[in-house]
Amino acid sequence: MFALCGIGHPSHPTAPRDGDTRMALNGPQKPLGQLLKEMELVTEGQIQEALALQREKGGALGSILVELGYVSEEEMLLALGAQVGMEVVNLDDMKIERWTLEKVSPTMAKVYKIIPVKFENNMLTVAMADPLNVSVLDDLRFMLNCDVQGAVSNEEAVTRAINHYYAGQTA
User: Fold this and answer.
1) Is there a contact between 164 and 37 (Cβ–Cβ < 8 Å)?
2) CA angle, residues 164, 167, 171, in degrees to nearest 5
Protein backbone atom coordinates (compact mmCIF):
# COMPACT_ATOMS: atom_id res chain seq x y z
CA MET A 1 0.00 0.00 0.00
CA PHE A 2 1.39 3.39 -0.95
CA ALA A 3 0.30 6.42 1.05
CA LEU A 4 -0.27 10.00 0.05
CA CYS A 5 1.68 12.48 2.14
CA GLY A 6 -1.11 14.87 3.03
CA ILE A 7 -4.43 13.04 2.92
CA GLY A 8 -7.23 15.43 3.75
CA HIS A 9 -5.56 18.48 2.18
CA PRO A 10 -7.06 18.67 -1.34
CA SER A 11 -5.81 22.18 -2.07
CA HIS A 12 -2.24 21.87 -0.90
CA PRO A 13 -0.33 25.18 -1.27
CA THR A 14 2.61 23.52 -3.04
CA ALA A 15 0.54 22.11 -5.90
CA PRO A 16 2.05 23.29 -9.18
CA ARG A 17 0.62 26.43 -10.71
CA ASP A 18 0.62 27.51 -14.32
CA GLY A 19 3.80 29.39 -15.11
CA ASP A 20 6.05 27.64 -12.55
CA THR A 21 9.57 27.44 -13.89
CA ARG A 22 12.94 26.33 -12.61
CA MET A 23 13.98 29.97 -12.23
CA ALA A 24 10.96 30.70 -10.06
CA LEU A 25 11.57 27.64 -7.90
CA ASN A 26 15.30 27.91 -7.38
CA GLY A 27 16.28 31.41 -8.39
CA PRO A 28 18.79 32.23 -11.12
CA GLN A 29 21.32 29.48 -11.70
CA LYS A 30 24.93 29.91 -12.64
CA PRO A 31 26.02 27.93 -15.68
CA LEU A 32 27.67 24.67 -14.65
CA GLY A 33 30.96 25.56 -16.32
CA GLN A 34 31.18 28.86 -14.43
CA LEU A 35 30.39 27.11 -11.15
CA LEU A 36 33.07 24.46 -11.74
CA LYS A 37 35.62 27.18 -12.52
CA GLU A 38 34.69 29.07 -9.34
CA MET A 39 35.16 25.83 -7.41
CA GLU A 40 38.61 25.62 -9.07
CA LEU A 41 37.85 22.18 -10.47
CA VAL A 42 38.36 23.03 -14.16
CA THR A 43 40.01 25.66 -16.31
CA GLU A 44 38.42 27.79 -19.01
CA GLY A 45 40.29 25.72 -21.61
CA GLN A 46 38.82 22.48 -20.26
CA ILE A 47 35.32 23.97 -20.33
CA GLN A 48 35.80 25.11 -23.93
CA GLU A 49 37.07 21.65 -24.94
CA ALA A 50 34.03 20.00 -23.32
CA LEU A 51 31.65 22.50 -24.94
CA ALA A 52 33.18 21.77 -28.36
CA LEU A 53 32.64 18.04 -27.79
CA GLN A 54 29.10 18.74 -26.64
CA ARG A 55 28.34 20.67 -29.84
CA GLU A 56 29.87 17.87 -31.92
CA LYS A 57 28.41 14.79 -30.19
CA GLY A 58 25.73 16.08 -27.83
CA GLY A 59 25.34 15.04 -24.21
CA ALA A 60 25.46 16.77 -20.86
CA LEU A 61 28.42 19.02 -20.13
CA GLY A 62 28.94 17.41 -16.74
CA SER A 63 29.08 13.91 -18.21
CA ILE A 64 31.58 15.04 -20.83
CA LEU A 65 33.84 16.61 -18.18
CA VAL A 66 33.71 13.38 -16.15
CA GLU A 67 34.46 11.27 -19.27
CA LEU A 68 37.45 13.50 -20.06
CA GLY A 69 38.72 12.94 -16.52
CA TYR A 70 38.68 16.65 -15.63
CA VAL A 71 36.35 16.13 -12.66
CA SER A 72 35.25 13.11 -10.65
CA GLU A 73 31.63 12.03 -10.54
CA GLU A 74 31.52 13.06 -6.87
CA GLU A 75 32.80 16.56 -7.70
CA MET A 76 30.20 16.82 -10.47
CA LEU A 77 27.41 15.83 -8.08
CA LEU A 78 28.58 18.46 -5.58
CA ALA A 79 28.60 21.11 -8.33
CA LEU A 80 25.14 20.08 -9.54
CA GLY A 81 23.87 20.22 -5.96
CA ALA A 82 25.31 23.70 -5.55
CA GLN A 83 23.85 24.77 -8.91
CA VAL A 84 20.30 23.74 -8.04
CA GLY A 85 20.43 24.29 -4.27
CA MET A 86 20.02 20.63 -3.31
CA GLU A 87 21.94 18.43 -0.92
CA VAL A 88 23.96 15.54 -2.31
CA VAL A 89 23.10 12.10 -0.94
CA ASN A 90 25.06 8.86 -1.08
CA LEU A 91 22.35 6.23 -1.47
CA ASP A 92 24.80 3.36 -1.02
CA ASP A 93 25.47 4.50 2.56
CA MET A 94 21.82 5.12 3.51
CA LYS A 95 19.22 2.99 5.22
CA ILE A 96 15.81 4.21 4.05
CA GLU A 97 12.85 3.57 6.33
CA ARG A 98 10.00 1.45 4.92
CA TRP A 99 7.35 4.07 5.77
CA THR A 100 9.33 6.64 3.77
CA LEU A 101 9.51 4.29 0.78
CA GLU A 102 5.76 3.76 0.98
CA LYS A 103 5.19 7.41 0.04
CA VAL A 104 6.21 6.61 -3.55
CA SER A 105 5.05 3.60 -5.59
CA PRO A 106 7.65 1.45 -7.38
CA THR A 107 6.18 2.53 -10.73
CA MET A 108 6.49 6.21 -9.83
CA ALA A 109 10.07 5.69 -8.63
CA LYS A 110 11.06 3.95 -11.87
CA VAL A 111 9.29 6.39 -14.20
CA TYR A 112 10.73 9.49 -12.50
CA LYS A 113 14.10 7.90 -11.57
CA ILE A 114 13.73 8.96 -7.94
CA ILE A 115 13.92 7.29 -4.55
CA PRO A 116 12.38 8.77 -1.40
CA VAL A 117 15.02 9.19 1.30
CA LYS A 118 13.37 11.17 4.10
CA PHE A 119 9.93 12.31 5.24
CA GLU A 120 9.69 14.92 8.01
CA ASN A 121 7.09 17.61 8.77
CA ASN A 122 5.07 16.77 5.64
CA MET A 123 8.23 17.26 3.52
CA LEU A 124 9.34 14.36 1.33
CA THR A 125 12.96 14.39 0.16
CA VAL A 126 13.67 12.38 -2.98
CA ALA A 127 17.06 11.54 -4.46
CA MET A 128 16.97 12.33 -8.17
CA ALA A 129 18.98 11.06 -11.10
CA ASP A 130 18.31 14.38 -12.91
CA PRO A 131 18.13 17.31 -10.50
CA LEU A 132 17.66 19.77 -13.37
CA ASN A 133 14.24 18.25 -14.16
CA VAL A 134 12.17 20.24 -11.67
CA SER A 135 8.93 19.15 -13.32
CA VAL A 136 9.47 15.84 -11.50
CA LEU A 137 9.19 17.69 -8.18
CA ASP A 138 6.07 19.54 -9.36
CA ASP A 139 4.44 16.27 -10.48
CA LEU A 140 5.26 14.59 -7.15
CA ARG A 141 3.88 17.55 -5.15
CA PHE A 142 0.64 17.30 -7.07
CA MET A 143 0.30 13.50 -6.95
CA LEU A 144 1.41 13.03 -3.33
CA ASN A 145 -0.19 16.15 -1.86
CA CYS A 146 2.83 17.17 0.22
CA ASP A 147 5.93 19.32 -0.04
CA VAL A 148 8.69 17.62 -2.03
CA GLN A 149 12.32 18.62 -2.26
CA GLY A 150 15.03 17.06 -4.36
CA ALA A 151 18.44 15.74 -3.45
CA VAL A 152 21.20 14.97 -5.93
CA SER A 153 22.46 11.44 -6.55
CA ASN A 154 23.86 9.65 -9.56
CA GLU A 155 21.65 7.65 -11.87
CA GLU A 156 23.31 4.32 -11.15
CA ALA A 157 22.86 4.72 -7.39
CA VAL A 158 19.18 5.67 -7.84
CA THR A 159 18.62 2.61 -10.04
CA ARG A 160 20.38 0.33 -7.52
CA ALA A 161 18.27 1.75 -4.68
CA ILE A 162 15.02 1.32 -6.62
CA ASN A 163 15.93 -2.28 -7.44
CA HIS A 164 16.94 -2.98 -3.83
CA TYR A 165 14.10 -1.30 -1.94
CA TYR A 166 11.27 -2.07 -4.35
CA ALA A 167 12.37 -5.63 -5.28
CA GLY A 168 9.33 -7.79 -6.09
CA GLN A 169 6.84 -4.89 -5.88
CA THR A 170 4.83 -3.77 -8.89
CA ALA A 171 2.25 -1.10 -8.05
Assistant:
1) no
2) 130
What is the predicted pLDDT for the residue at 54?
95
3-state secondary structure 141-162: HHHHCCEEEEEECCHHHHHHHH
The model carries a pTM of: 0.75
Question: What's the confidence (pLDDT) of residue 3?
Answer: 56
Residue among 89, 91, 92, 97 at smallest CA distance from 3: 97
- Cα–Cα distance, 21 to 138 (Å, whole number): 10
Which 3 state secondary structure label does DSSP give 128? strand
Residue-wise pLDDT for 6-65, tens only, equals 543 333 333 333 333 333 344 567 888 999 999 999 999 999 999 999 999 999 899 999
- 123-128 and 114-120 beta bridge pairing: antiparallel
Q: What is the largest CA-CA distance in the chain?
A: 55
What whole-number distance in Å separates Cα of residue 17 and Cα of residue 22?
12
Quick one: which of 47, 44, 88 has its CA closest to 68? 47
Q: At 53, which amino acid appears?
A: L
